[in-house]
Amino acid sequence: MIIHLKEGIAENKVAEIADAVEALCFFDGITHVLVNSSKVKAVPSHFEEFVDQQFIFDSDIQLASRDYLKETRPIQIGKNQVGSKSINTLMITGPCSVESQEQIEACAAFNQSLGISVLRAGCFKPRTSPYTFQGMGEEGLALLAEMRAKYGLQIISEIRDASHADEVINAVDIVQVGAKAMYDQGILRKCGESGKPVLLKRGFGATLQEFVQAAEFILSLGNGQVILCERGIRTFETKTRFTIDLCGVAYLKERVNLPVFLDPSHAMGYAYGVPDLTRACVAMGIDGLLIESHPDPSSALSDASQQLDFESFGKLFETLPGIANTIGRNMI
């Protein structure tokens, strides 16, 4: 249940009501919003005089539901907006990992040359094997900050675990919560408290219900700037890395009030399939894309097989505005 209290209620009374109904509480800029379990269907009668609106739900997809907010939530990323009534599809590209000054500067300059405003790159890498490249850590974050200042780019990077969550949140413009961290409530709560845009990736074994409920952890702390990112789920298929769930994307667009991005690089796992898969994603009318690109993928220290070289990415990017335009959207 979501409860909007009337304006002007004293803070101690708000806290009393929230405690009585066992609800999380935040101020949305206009009124206090209380959220508790969807199993609750009514406000206690002695608190009804303080209630402006109440919303009843069948599941704990509540703040993210279009039954609560009809329009997609607007999110400002630098000079660009996604969600709401925007018809923009935002491209984000960059390497899987920051590897060196020379490598990340080449990527930043490439983004700028194409007019792509957001650079992605990992600094703390949640690798499956402990014997592989784990990222440059804080040194990588410093290099990303340097690229932002020099090339005027927005920066997105991933939190691997709670040990460095604050460092990443403070350093980036968009916080990425990866598929392996989707269930980490410590990270989700820190993102909720940050007030920054958060890109939340779907865990490769997560249902849509679980995926959106992870977003609810962030929303319930008052941070409405959440982007959902489909990056492929694990199925019986072994010829591709994962299987991108475009059926799930259709559901999210219809039922959920958060912008939806897609990551075809991680879904496919192999560079040869990324361009066609990207074009299919754009045709879905999504809010944004994450594509991995690298000056020399053959030498990449992580995810070498799926990253596009600059020539391949450039050819792909040229094909996307036409597809977007046919469904009334703009590639930015």
Flag low-confidence runs.
Answer: none
Rg over C-alpha atoms, rounded to the nearest angstrom: 20 Å
- Oligomeric state of the chains in view: single chain
Q: Average pLDDT value?
A: 96
Question: What name does the CATH topology of the largest domain carry?
Answer: TIM Barrel
Q: Please give the order of strands in the largest beta sheet.
A: 7-8-9-10-11-12-13-14
What is the string of SSEs from the N terminus onward? EHEEEEEEHEHEHEHEHEHEHHEHE
Q: For the report, how would you describe the main beta sheet?
A: 8 strands, parallel, barrel
CATH architectural arrangement of the largest domain: Alpha-Beta Barrel
CATH superfamily of the largest domain: Aldolase class I
In one word, what is the shape? Answer: globular
Distance between the termini: 37 Å
Tell me the strand percentage band: 15-25%
- Give the tally of β-strands: 15
How would you describe the overall organization of this protein?
It is a single chain. The protein is an alpha/beta fold. The chain folds into 2 domains: 2-55; 75-331, TIM Barrel (Alpha-Beta Barrel), CATH 3.20.20. The chain is 33% helix and 19% strand. β5 (75-77) and β6 form a beta hairpin. The two termini are 37 Å apart.
Q: What key attributes describe this structure?
A:
single chain, 332 residues, TIM Barrel
Question: What is the compact description of this entry?
Answer:
This protein has 332 residues and is α/β, with parallel strands linked by helices. Helices cover 33% and strands 19% of the residues.
